[in-house]
User: Which sequence fits this backbone?
């Protein structure tokens, strides 16, 4: 794995909260697309979309659409009679999403725009489904976003959330103490609520939604996929940035992962939780 790179300090410790404010937004755009292409991520994402479910002809809103990975899945599911709208507060990611969607055969059935999840620019009851995938971890006021999602869904419509939970991470590494410091201490600095996945059912119920259902899934990697490699390198960088470890220790930790891959002993898993509620 590559040596730890230096990064500028952002206004908030979680760079995904404000990608446009980062020194290199393209790095995060590329990371979102890498995750979207990773097979295990594709499987758990598409299982969740079926669990919601998203149906042919639905009008669907995705909050926090990023580069449009999920929008491109959704528009295939709703077909030519459906409609998908993706919103994100990042102008850089919305611009990238529009470019990536240009060649899609159902491009005319999707719209991508800059908007804040706490103040959605849509009338009440417009959509059949509103969803947010790996978003609640990064927003300042998750309850406010979910309430807005519930507002723009019709009666009988569905609001769906999926998030990772960093209290349920497994990583094989010969130095367990160093691994715990890097993984646990970094997420405690990055996110107000790193155990985001397990709070999703309560967010839906607090927004007045009923018939809440939960799907538990797992991202698994035994080969150090590019997305996982990027994820762990960012953890090492942040551990140095926050003063949790020094650069040589961070590099030693990354080198330990490379050795595991060479021996066929690498294992990384993260639990993902999905929750779906119905608007009364």
Assistant:
């Amino acid at each position: 794995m590559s040596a730890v790179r230096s990064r500028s300090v952002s206004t908030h410790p979680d760079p995904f909260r404000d990608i446009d404010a980062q020194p290199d937004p393209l790095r995060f755009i590329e990371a979102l697309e890498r995750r979207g292409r990773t097979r295990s991520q594709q499987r758990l994402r598409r299982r969740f979309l079926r669990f919601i479910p998203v149906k042919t002809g639905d009008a669907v809103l995705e909050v926090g659409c990023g580069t449009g990975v999920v929008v491109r899945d959704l528009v295939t599911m709703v077909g030519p009679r459906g409609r998908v709208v993706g919103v994100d507060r990042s102008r850089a990611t919305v611009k990238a999403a529009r470019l990536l969607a240009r060649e899609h055969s159902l491009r005319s059935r999707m719209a991508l725009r800059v908007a804040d999840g706490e103040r959605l620019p849509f009338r009440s009851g417009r959509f059949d489904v509103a969803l947010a995938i790996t978003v609640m971890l990064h927003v300042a006021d998750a309850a406010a976003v979910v309430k807005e999602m519930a507002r723009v869904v019709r009666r009988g419509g569905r609001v769906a959330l999926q998030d990772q939970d960093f209290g349920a991470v497994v990583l094989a590494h010969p130095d367990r103490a160093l691994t715990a410091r890097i993984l646990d201490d970094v997420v405690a600095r990055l996110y107000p609520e790193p155990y985001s996945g397990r709070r999703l059912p309560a967010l839906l119920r607090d927004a007045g939604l009923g018939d809440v259902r939960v799907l538990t899934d797992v991202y698994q990697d035994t080969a150090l996929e590019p997305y996982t490699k990027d994820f762990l390198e960012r953890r090492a960088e942040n551990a140095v940035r926050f003063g949790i470890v020094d650069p040589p220790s961070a590099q030693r930790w990354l080198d330990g992962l490379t050795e595991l891959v060479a021996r066929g002993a690498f294992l990384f898993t993260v639990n993902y939780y999905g929750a779906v509620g119905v608007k009364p």
